[in-house]
Design brief:
Layout: H1 2-13, H2 15-37, H3 46-72
Helix pairs in contact: 1-3, 2-3
Length: 74
């Protein structure tokens, strides 16, 4: 029964990774939308694109870490 709780908790924690994937897609999609509307300003927004992707991906890494902790440390 304890193992079932660990697996269930880890699976629920992995929902955060799906949220991170949606966030990265949203950031990239909005960047492309803006770059296609104004190509001359696209070069100045590339740093913002990478910062946004890094923040969104960090949340996915944190949820992966929580899932591993629930599986192996508890």
């Amino acid at each position: 029964m304890e193992q079932l709780g660990q697996y269930l908790g880890a699976g629920i924690a992995c929902v955060g990774m799906a949220g991170a994937a949606i966030g990265v897609g949203n950031v990239a999609g909005n960047y492309l939308s803006g770059a296609l509307r104004n190509p001359s300003a696209a070069a100045s927004q590339t740093a913002t694109l990478f910062i946004g992707m890094a923040f969104a991906e960090a949340l996915g890494i944190f949820s992966f870490l929580v899932a591993l902790l629930l599986l192996f440390a508890v």
